[in-house]
Amino acid sequence: MTRALITGITGQDGLYLAELLHSKGYEVFGLVRGQNNPKFDMVQQLLPEVKLLTGDLTDVSSLTRVLNIAQPDEVYNLGAISFVAYSWENASLTTDVTAKGVLNILEATRLYAGNDISKVRFYQASSSEMYGKVQQVPQTEETLLWPRSPYGVAKVYGHYMTINYRESYGMHASSGILFNHESPRRGPEFVTRKVSRAVARIALGMQDDITLGNLDAKRDWGFAGDYVDAMWRMLQQPEGDDYVVATGETHSIEELLQVAFRVAGIENWRDYVKQDPRFMRPAEVDLLIGDPTKAQEKLGWTPTVGFEQLVEMMVNSDLAEQSALLKK
Ligand code: NAP
Ligand code: G4F
Q1: Cis status, amide bond into 238, omega within 30 of 0
Q2: How far apart are CA 185 and CA 15, in angstroms?
Q3: 253 CB less than 6 Å from ligand 2?
Q4: 157 is catalytic
Q5: How far apart are CA 310 and CA 328, in angstroms?
Q6: Is the CB of 80 under 6 A from ligand 1?
Q7: Ligand 2: distance of its center to the CA of 245 in Å?
Q8: Both 49 and 17 in a single domain?
Q9: CA distance 135 to 319
Q10: How does pLDDT run across 257-301, given as a tens digit for each residue?
Q11: Per-residue pLDDT tens over the stretch 30-44
Q12: Is 127 a catalytic residue?
């Protein structure tokens, strides 16, 4: 039985990845941070077969303990402070977790492997936010990185540290440069879920409008379930490498709003949308669009859910969730 350790198991991707690995017959271990983290019970109820261990990416000794208990063949480092807007307000913490945390888990993994570095394979959750002020359209594995937030800078550190462990120690370490991926499990602070939830509540008469920031930014949005499959495929290759995972399509926040309101039967969406500078960022990433050719050719990976289907899935899920709340 292959054994896997997932950091960030309580997040969107961690849950999908744990389900995928379990369906493939893996023994799955998950790192959960904090004392009495309420998400511990949530994961245990959803995935009772997963073994949860407490630890924190900022605490190397906890990572060493967890690795020794889990004895993984594969380590997926998904844990991070992942909300870009929050990263300006908590830049030092973001650096500790999202940058230095990668070094901590890489080093703990190297020490766990001991004299046999081939004993374990490593995945790092890198991000299209690393492209920031984009220097090439579409973005590839070779595009110059120009991060525009403390989060983006931290991810660049983790990306290069992963490459360094591959090149310095021969570790099977892969960096997935994942573009935005969403699902009904997306945190409500991110724009897609903020929109899908608000649209559902507006359609049900529970809320009057939604207040957002920049509506012009464009993102390459895919479905999280597809993206965790790409992570797994990376670790099944003979060598570690870097891969862009994206749909190759981009859409603005305005288009997101238009489709989301249409799913709920509302055409005059502008009547329900307000803007407020408090949701604007000190520096914006205006346009992200990835070129997934390498992932397609080497991993045999293709996205299965398109933009409109994704938005429909999220709005319908929130309509069901909010209707249930109304009935209570
Ligand atoms: P998410 O839902 O925000 O999950 C982040 C996870 O990190 C949570 O489980 C969180 O635990 C955990 N975490 C936070 N601080 C930690 C710490 N100090 N020690 C250990 N764990 C900690 O993020 P996601 O959307 O699933 O994304 C997964 C990874 O992919 C992240 O690294 C993210 O930066 C990266 N990424 C995401 C996207 C995307 O579009 N979703 C794109 C590119 C890259 P709690 O639940 O306890 O807070
Ligand atoms: O949904 P977002 O907060 O995601 P963002 O900043 O693109 O980051 C996400 O994707 C990255 C991959 O590229 C991940 F690495 C990262 O961890 C995270 O998962 O914002 C998307 C866009 C931005 O341009 C933002 O300015 O939506 C714009 N936006 C406009 N109004 C808003 C809002 N974003 C949020 N969260 N809330 C708003 O009210």
Answers
A1: no
A2: 9
A3: yes
A4: no
A5: 28
A6: yes
A7: 17
A8: yes
A9: 39
A10: 999 999 999 999 999 999 999 999 999 999 999 999 999 999 999
A11: 999 999 999 999 999
A12: yes
